[in-house]
Amino acid sequence: MLSLLDPSRQLVIGHRGNRAHAPEDTLESFAQAVALGVDALECDVHLSRDGVPVVIHDPSLDRTTAASGAVRQWTRAELAGVDAGARFSPDGGKRFPYRGRGIGVPALEDVLDAFRDLPLIIEIKVAEASAPVLALLERRGDSGRVLIGSFLESALRPFRAAGLAVGSSVDAMKPLYLPALLGARPAVLPFQAMIIPRRHGVLPLPVTRFARMMAARGGPTHVWTVNDPAEAQALWRRGVNGILSDNPAAILAARRSLR
Questions:
Q1: Of 71, 123, 162, 220, which sits with the fewest C-beta atoms within 10 Å of its C-beta?
Q2: In angstroms, how far is CA 113 from the centroid of its own chain?
Q3: What pLDDT sits at residue 181?
Q4: CA–CA separation, 115 and 216 (whole Å)
């Protein structure tokens, strides 16, 4: 069984890699998270101008790289050459230790190649990326090592139809709020794992009740983004399975000391 679907596991998942300590969604960030001992990685996917799935969170390059403009305006090769380490600073702008080190925006295939033995949560940021990602996974034989997430139900439909494991979209979760509060257990859920935040805006979500609902269906609940060790421990005690964290070292330590 894919560990990301195992309701008996307590997982630590590197959110965009080791985001607190390295440029997010880069091979460097993922490699650091793997070296720490994470159980899985989470990454975000957009499409390049030439239709290649590339790993970056935002629709533009401005926040995380030295370049600017929409990701969709750049080819895979061009994105690989931008400085994706330029803006990362561990101390509020005093130092930029990854600037000029040749860290680019990776293609999804680069990530799949680099970390062949590790499960991945792949967050589809735009619906048009779904078909190319699905084709890539099927061509490589990697469909069984991934859990596909998205806010967009339309982005998940092709994967669901192809039999891949999918997480909970916003649209799929909305009708479950009241049943969760009432302790109801729907007979069927349109996803294999819940991937949820702790809050929707300023409102806290009933995470424990959602986790119970999912467990009753034999599936896991993964919560993002949790960087506080005590909070991670509390969530595990309440039945949550996976913790997506920017700071996986702290959460791994919290798991080791969990009682």
A1: 162
A2: 17
A3: 87
A4: 32
At 71, which amino acid appears? V
Residue 144: Cβ within 10 Å count: 12
Which residue type occupies 51? Answer: G
Q: What are phi and psi of 46, to 5 degrees?
A: -120, 180
126: helix, strand or coil: coil
Strands (E), 146-241: 146-149, 194-197, 199-200, 203-204, 221-224
Q: What is the pLDDT of residue 203?
A: 81
Beta partners for residue 169, in sequence order = none
* Residue spans of the chain under pLDDT 70: none
What is the torsional sign of CA 22, 198, 239, 177?
Answer: negative
Interatomic CA distance for residues 242 and 258, integer angstroms: 14
The pLDDT of residue 62 is: 98
Q: Residues 74, 61: contact at Cβ < 8 Å?
A: yes
Q: How far apart are CA 126 and CA 137, in angstroms?
A: 17
Tokens of 243: 């913790």
Neighbours of 30 (CB within 10 A): 28
Reduce the DSSP state of residue 13 to 3 states and report it.
strand
